[in-house]
Design goal:
- The longest helix is centred in the C-terminal third of the chain and has 25 residues.
- The radius of gyration is 26 Å and the shape is flat.
- The strands form 2 sheets. It has a two-stranded antiparallel ribbon.
- It is mostly helical and 142 residues long.
- Helix content is 48%, strand content 8%.
- It has 5 helices and 4 strands; from the N terminus they run ββαααββαα.
Protein backbone atom coordinates (compact mmCIF):
# COMPACT_ATOMS: atom_id res chain seq x y z
CA UNK A 1 0.00 0.00 0.00
CA UNK A 2 1.41 3.33 -1.05
CA UNK A 3 1.03 6.32 1.23
CA UNK A 4 1.83 8.95 -1.36
CA UNK A 5 4.87 10.84 -2.49
CA UNK A 6 6.37 14.19 -1.72
CA UNK A 7 5.37 16.85 -4.21
CA UNK A 8 5.13 20.59 -4.55
CA UNK A 9 1.66 22.13 -4.58
CA UNK A 10 0.77 23.37 -8.07
CA UNK A 11 -0.85 26.49 -6.59
CA UNK A 12 1.42 27.63 -3.75
CA UNK A 13 4.54 25.48 -4.35
CA UNK A 14 4.46 24.17 -0.74
CA UNK A 15 5.86 20.70 -0.11
CA UNK A 16 3.20 18.13 0.83
CA UNK A 17 2.47 14.40 0.67
CA UNK A 18 0.57 13.86 -2.56
CA UNK A 19 -2.04 11.14 -2.44
CA UNK A 20 -4.87 12.10 -4.78
CA UNK A 21 -4.73 15.82 -5.61
CA UNK A 22 -1.92 17.93 -7.04
CA UNK A 23 -2.56 20.69 -4.48
CA UNK A 24 -1.86 20.79 -0.77
CA UNK A 25 -4.66 20.50 1.81
CA UNK A 26 -4.55 24.25 2.54
CA UNK A 27 -5.03 25.15 -1.14
CA UNK A 28 -7.69 22.47 -1.49
CA UNK A 29 -9.68 24.21 1.25
CA UNK A 30 -9.26 27.53 -0.58
CA UNK A 31 -10.47 25.98 -3.85
CA UNK A 32 -13.50 24.54 -2.08
CA UNK A 33 -14.30 27.96 -0.61
CA UNK A 34 -13.94 29.52 -4.06
CA UNK A 35 -16.29 26.90 -5.48
CA UNK A 36 -18.88 27.63 -2.78
CA UNK A 37 -18.66 31.36 -3.53
CA UNK A 38 -19.27 30.73 -7.25
CA UNK A 39 -22.04 28.20 -6.67
CA UNK A 40 -23.81 30.46 -4.16
CA UNK A 41 -23.57 33.40 -6.59
CA UNK A 42 -24.95 31.38 -9.52
CA UNK A 43 -27.80 29.87 -7.48
CA UNK A 44 -29.42 33.29 -7.19
CA UNK A 45 -31.95 33.77 -9.97
CA UNK A 46 -30.78 37.30 -10.81
CA UNK A 47 -27.22 36.04 -11.42
CA UNK A 48 -28.04 33.20 -13.82
CA UNK A 49 -27.44 35.40 -16.85
CA UNK A 50 -23.90 36.27 -15.75
CA UNK A 51 -20.89 35.47 -17.87
CA UNK A 52 -17.60 34.14 -16.47
CA UNK A 53 -16.08 37.61 -16.12
CA UNK A 54 -19.05 38.89 -14.12
CA UNK A 55 -18.89 35.82 -11.86
CA UNK A 56 -15.16 36.37 -11.38
CA UNK A 57 -15.62 40.05 -10.56
CA UNK A 58 -18.47 39.41 -8.12
CA UNK A 59 -16.81 36.52 -6.28
CA UNK A 60 -13.13 37.38 -6.53
CA UNK A 61 -12.42 33.92 -8.00
CA UNK A 62 -10.09 33.88 -11.00
CA UNK A 63 -11.44 33.16 -14.48
CA UNK A 64 -8.92 30.33 -14.69
CA UNK A 65 -10.33 28.67 -11.58
CA UNK A 66 -13.95 29.11 -12.70
CA UNK A 67 -12.97 27.59 -16.05
CA UNK A 68 -11.55 24.63 -14.17
CA UNK A 69 -14.81 24.23 -12.22
CA UNK A 70 -16.78 24.23 -15.48
CA UNK A 71 -14.48 21.73 -17.18
CA UNK A 72 -14.62 19.45 -14.13
CA UNK A 73 -18.41 19.59 -14.28
CA UNK A 74 -18.72 21.19 -10.87
CA UNK A 75 -20.39 24.28 -12.30
CA UNK A 76 -23.02 23.49 -14.89
CA UNK A 77 -23.52 25.77 -17.86
CA UNK A 78 -26.94 24.19 -18.53
CA UNK A 79 -28.75 26.49 -16.08
CA UNK A 80 -26.48 29.42 -16.89
CA UNK A 81 -26.85 30.12 -20.62
CA UNK A 82 -24.29 32.94 -20.80
CA UNK A 83 -21.68 31.14 -18.74
CA UNK A 84 -18.80 29.88 -20.84
CA UNK A 85 -15.04 30.02 -20.65
CA UNK A 86 -12.42 31.56 -22.93
CA UNK A 87 -11.07 29.77 -25.99
CA UNK A 88 -7.39 29.02 -25.35
CA UNK A 89 -6.38 30.62 -28.63
CA UNK A 90 -8.56 33.71 -29.20
CA UNK A 91 -10.42 34.22 -25.91
CA UNK A 92 -13.99 34.07 -27.23
CA UNK A 93 -16.43 32.33 -24.87
CA UNK A 94 -17.04 28.63 -25.52
CA UNK A 95 -19.02 25.91 -23.75
CA UNK A 96 -17.04 22.75 -24.57
CA UNK A 97 -13.50 21.78 -25.44
CA UNK A 98 -10.52 24.07 -25.46
CA UNK A 99 -10.92 25.92 -28.76
CA UNK A 100 -13.80 27.68 -30.50
CA UNK A 101 -15.06 26.46 -33.89
CA UNK A 102 -13.31 29.30 -35.73
CA UNK A 103 -9.93 28.44 -34.20
CA UNK A 104 -10.46 24.72 -34.88
CA UNK A 105 -11.23 25.46 -38.53
CA UNK A 106 -8.20 27.73 -38.75
CA UNK A 107 -5.92 25.05 -37.28
CA UNK A 108 -7.35 22.41 -39.65
CA UNK A 109 -6.66 24.77 -42.57
CA UNK A 110 -3.10 25.38 -41.37
CA UNK A 111 -2.46 21.65 -40.97
CA UNK A 112 -3.86 20.92 -44.44
CA UNK A 113 -1.61 23.58 -45.96
CA UNK A 114 1.44 22.27 -44.09
CA UNK A 115 0.74 18.71 -45.27
CA UNK A 116 0.39 19.92 -48.86
CA UNK A 117 3.72 21.79 -48.65
CA UNK A 118 5.41 18.71 -47.16
CA UNK A 119 3.94 16.51 -49.94
CA UNK A 120 5.21 18.89 -52.64
CA UNK A 121 8.66 19.09 -51.07
CA UNK A 122 8.78 15.30 -50.90
CA UNK A 123 7.81 15.09 -54.59
CA UNK A 124 10.60 17.52 -55.52
CA UNK A 125 13.19 15.51 -53.55
CA UNK A 126 12.08 12.11 -54.81
CA UNK A 127 10.30 12.55 -58.14
CA UNK A 128 10.48 8.82 -58.99
CA UNK A 129 8.86 7.70 -55.71
CA UNK A 130 5.72 9.78 -55.78
CA UNK A 131 2.42 8.47 -57.08
CA UNK A 132 1.82 11.75 -58.93
CA UNK A 133 4.98 11.24 -60.97
CA UNK A 134 3.97 7.64 -61.69
CA UNK A 135 0.52 8.68 -62.87
CA UNK A 136 2.07 11.29 -65.13
CA UNK A 137 4.15 8.74 -67.13
CA UNK A 138 2.67 7.49 -70.39
CA UNK A 139 2.80 3.90 -71.48
CA UNK A 140 5.26 3.79 -74.43
CA UNK A 141 4.21 0.26 -75.47
CA UNK A 142 0.91 1.48 -76.97
Amino acid sequence: MSLGKLANCSRCDALFVQAVRDICPKCYQQVEQEYELCARFLRKRENRGSNIYQVSEATGVSVKQITKFIKEGRISIAGNPHLGYPCERCGSLIHTGNLCDTCIDSLKHDITQDLEVMRRLDEEKNPGNSTAAYRGKRNTDE
